[in-house]
Amino acid sequence: xxxxxxxxxxxxxxxxxxxxxxxxxxxxxxxxxxxxLMPPPNLTGELHLGHAMQHxxxxxxxxxxxxQGFDVLxxxxxxxxxxxxxxxxxxxxxxxxxxxxxxxxEEWLKRAEVFREENYQSFHKTWTVFGLSADWxxxxxxxxxxxxxxVFAEFETFWEQDLLxxxxxxxxxxxxxxxxxxxxxMEYQERKEKLYFVKYRVIAKDVDRHASARDxxxxxxxxxxxxxxxxxxxxxxGIAIYPKHPKFSKLVGKTAINPLTGxxxxxxxxxxxxxxxxxxxxxxxxxxxxxxxxxxxxxxxPILHVIDKKGRMTNLAPLLEGLKIDEAREKTVQLLETxxxxxxxxxxxxxxxxxxxxxxxxxxxxxxEWFIKMEPLAKKALKHIGQIKFxxxxxxxxxxxxxxxxxxxxxxxxxxxxxxxxxxYCQKCNPNHLVGKDKDMVVSKEEPGKTCxxxxxxxxxxDEQIFxxxxxxxxxxxxxxxxxxxxxELQRYYPWDFELTSPEIKFLWIARMIMxxxxxxxxxxxxxxxxxxxxxxxxxxxFSKSLGNGINPGELRDQWGTDSTRMALYSxxxxxxxxxxxxxxxxxxxxxxxxxxxxxxxxxxFTMELKPEVLGMPTSAPQSDVIARSQxxxxxxxxxxxxxxxxLNNVVLGVTKNLEDFNLxxxxxxxxxxxxxxxADVYIEKSKARRAQAQPCLEQVLEICLKLxxxxxxxxxxxxxxxxxxxxxxxxxxKWPIAR
Length: 740
Known about the structure:
Elements lengths: L6 H13 L13 E5 L11 H19 L3 E5 L1 E2 L3 H14 L4 H26 L14 E2 L3 H16 L3 E11 L4 E3 L4 E18 L5 H5 L7 E7 L10 E4 L13 E3 L6 E6 L11 E4 L5 H9 L26 H14 L3 E14 L7 E10 L2 H10 L4 E3 L3 H10 L4 E2 L1 E2 L9 E4 L14 E3 L16 E3 L3 E2 L1 H5 L2 H4 L8 H6 L2 E6 L4 H16 L4 E6 L3 E2 L16 H8 L1 H9 L8 E2 L2 H27 L15 H11 L3 H22 L3 H24 L3 H19 L4 H8 L19
Parallel strand pairs: 1-2, 1-22, 3-4, 9-11, 15-23, 22-23, 24-25
Antiparallel strand pairs: 5-6, 5-14, 7-8, 7-10, 7-13, 9-12, 10-11, 14-16, 17-21, 18-19, 18-20
Helix pairs in contact: 9-14, 15-16, 16-17, 17-20, 17-21, 18-21, 19-20, 19-21, 20-21, 21-22
């Protein structure tokens, strides 16, 4: 790090801010309020470039609003990261030859809490290094009692409103994480695999299949289907063709014989079959495909399971039981070949869903889960979503389209790390844990003190599952302010004025917050919703550990300083626009802004440390920079002074407007261009010939420039502010410049 800003100076300045309580809010303040809600980063994650950008953007807006005279709440928080935390912790346990099963739930949770605390302490240290001016006294963690209280109230309300149900339905299942996940939590990998064309022998319903099999093979009738997953044929319960199929329509109403199990399965028409895929005939496996599940449900097909929740074959395929899917696929093909059931095979490329966290292939499986009926919530959200100002504006339509086509939300996860579902069953009267208001069950966050209404005894057992982490984080705008209590904070700071996130969780988080906040508080959760673009590598890929293409913001800060790193991030902060970066390009931008910081310090040295000793007019007017600039403009007769003050006035207008519109990159460009070129390159050079006369103008311009730069470069501007004449104890408390 250069002399522009060293770590010790930054630490001293940050401690000064905290000691003076400059980040804290006051619900009783007479100032107007402005609230910003931080997206809670995952507990197990490291501070990455995306976090750094989010923190930099939010902090710039918070500092800008404080200087405008607002009582600003920038509320920080941390997410417990259910699936990710559990996966990370279980890997550590495996190194000790331990597991969830060996430890049991109670002991596992005790150890997990110790691991959480260790992570929390080290993780928290990374937050303040970017100068985040958050009210740390109001920091929230998604598993703390305040949040759990809100989540319990959320669940109980849905229960009373008959919007909850539990049952066995097809879900996206991650075998490695061991839980259901959502479509939105999946990624798609392009893979080249084999497409197999498998023949199913066809017989009429009233024909003896064994007698038919003795006929000459030339007389046999077959229907051929294309599949990339021959291992699931064991669970086939039907074959569908698209309507008026030119070749297979004559087979509708007949029966096919499963080539692996010998089971008889019906042939029928369904308009959802893709005409362009394979032969236009689709094998229907309701237990292992979402479309097949819907088709099978409509045609009353049985549901069979040949793949279990660990991603291994079941006893439905006796010869393959216990095998992993890839190995089972290979052996299944061999079996089909021995039966001459494969007509042909060919290579084809297709998208395969994988878990976004562990990259394991996702399996559609039937699982008993909890769901919320989302249609009523989506309808209400659609009526009010126009009250939110989106940046960029097209996200209103993107979210609205999703809400119009919403499906029920699976809110349960088969994990231990999270908020446990507050439902208790009488193990004696309700051993199958059936759900319903007429069942022997109780919705309660603690074990019921009362007896079962049927047996008049206490045999209560709690539901094993936990809530989806998005179910709790969806309540973030309300839970952080103490809802369901009508707290002073909730009254003053809700709805939030500003929220931001990356586009990838627009449905998982943003849409859920909108729906839940409107449902429970009848208000939008935030007034302004900012989607920043994704920073990607030069090939357009997401940064990830597996690719080794990540950029550590801490390393940038160590080399170039916090302010220089922040400035580089602002240059990428165009709403909704992805950008490509590498360590080299980041270093180049950081170096440029480091040089800019040096330029600013040199302007200070020239203006204040090298100023003439005797002047004929005042050198500062801290009471009001607007009045001072107006008076100065009237007194100054020199064209250069008038020009720089007019240029500065335009910069104040431009920077203010761009910050109000959250165009931080444009605001930065304006102030950068003015200071480096119009001020340093032109005005200061000209002023050297008439230094004493130009001094009042120099000081006034420097003061305004420091104020304009403070949201972007908080440490450098605070350091210089303390060296010039001032009345406020921190530049953070100085009034934002107003154009004259």
